[in-house]
Amino acid sequence: MNGTLSIVATPIGNLQDISLRATKTLLTADIIACEDTRKTGLLLQEIAKNLSTMPNVKKPRLISFYDQVEAEKINEIIEFLQAGMHVALVSDAGTPTISDPGFKLVRAVVEAGFKIESIPGPSAVITALTVAGLPTDKFLFVGYPPKKDGHRKEFYQHLLTMGETMKFTVVMYEAPHRIKQTLEELAEVFAMTKHVVIARELTKLYEEVLRDSLENMQKHFAAHEPKGEFVILFTVGE
User: Fold this and answer.
1) 80, 119, 162, 224: which has the fewest Cβ within 10 Å?
2) Cβ distance 233 to 195 under 8 Å?
């Protein structure tokens, strides 16, 4: 009997966002490969509190699966699948493989011929898009901008060039300690961009969605200390 790999989306903040299917998958899997075993363990404890009974519940084994160990863990997971086990892959928050470890594992499992299923759910990219009020018929998710200054300039310029032939919304992540630098760089390259949206702490208690010009965004974060993880959205080619 061959095993199955489940790609399971977990909440990005509000624990009530976990789906019934994700809950059942996590509580019945043999193995859960997780970015942080402590965080996943706390999540399992929390969702178990809300379940009085569930058939076939067992305590899954948690194993670490993050960027630095992904390559060495792939063979181990393939062995679990060969033994007929059910393996669930989760990230710290949101949908695995989206700016998180996992795509190499998925590729290896496909090549090995095992079944893969996706348990869809929360994603900061889609959550931000739905509240931004920007065009969603065409959007480009670019993850985090490059860290090196030279590469960042090339990156922004490439987006600007793409906008010469097509209008689309850019969605990117940014860390709080770089948000001011990023807004300054965006203002230099995308001076004609009128509408920018910055979403912070999505689904959490202090969720904040700002909609303004790049100039006013810079003023805002000059006066307020950036906290939390950020999603930046703006339209290119408008």
Assistant:
1) 224
2) no
Residue for token pair 């970015």:
35
Between 58 and 8, residue with greater pLDDT: 8
Provide the whole-model pTM. Answer: 0.90
What is the token pair recorded at 102? 């996992």
Task: Read off the pLDDT of residues 21-60 as tens digits, 9 standing for 90 and up.
Answer: 999 999 999 999 999 999 999 999 888 877 755 555 668 9
Q: Which of 47, 121, 119 shows the shortest CA–CA distance to 88? A: 119
**How many Cβ atoms from other residues are within 10 Å of residue 14's Cβ?**
13
Give the three-state DSSP class for 88. strand
Class of domain 125-236: alpha beta
4-122 placed in CATH 3.30.300.30: no
Domain boundaries, the chain: 4-122, 125-236
